[in-house]
Amino acid sequence: MTEAAFFYGTLMATEIIGDVLCGRAAPPAIKTKKLASLQLTPALLKGHRRYAVKHATYPGLLESSNPSDQVEGILCEGLTIRDVEALDDYEGNEYRRQYTTVVKIHGSTHQNDNHIQENVIPCQVYLWIADKRQLQDHDWDYDHWRQHHLPTTIV
Question: Tell me, what is one Gene Ontology molecular-function annotation carried by this entry (predicted)?
Fold first, then answer.
């Protein structure tokens, strides 16, 4: 049996997934093989908001009272129990893993596009449980992080 998780922050980068699941020092071929065993698909987590964390380069995620709030991210399917343990270690004590569902997106997400297919998939997600005052009142920017912080991110 395999597990699934929704990634909404630094783990959307395959470089980070490979480092976390295989170890930073693992040979590239091992990381490539691991990544090939996973199914990574764009997905939406509804009823949640992602926030930038003050003085950090990663986000926090909270449930929202507004059901129209949603977070774009990656659904990662095919994880082993060992992988989930590695993810728990990576996320640390600022987060709690919990079960949820996401909408797996195939095709365009434009509102006027009639070719959208959505599948609701059960998975796990890491919610922010540290002090909420550490969260900034704006969304975390993946593209900015990837351009400015990924090269120096150490697992």
Answer: transferase activity
Q: State the pLDDT at residue 107.
A: 60
**CATH number of the CATH domain containing 107:** 3.10.490.10
* pLDDT, tens digit (0-9, with 9 covering 90-100), for 34-82: 999 999 999 999 999 999 999 999 999 999 999 899 999 999 999 999 9
Strand, coil or helix: what is 36? Answer: helix
In a domain, 153, yes or no: no
Joined tokens for residue 64: 């929202």
Contacts of 47 (CB under 8 A, 6+ apart): 63, 64, 66, 67, 69, 70
- Length of the chain in terms of residues written: 155
Q: What is the pLDDT of residue 22?
A: 97
Q: Domain range holding 77?
A: 3-147
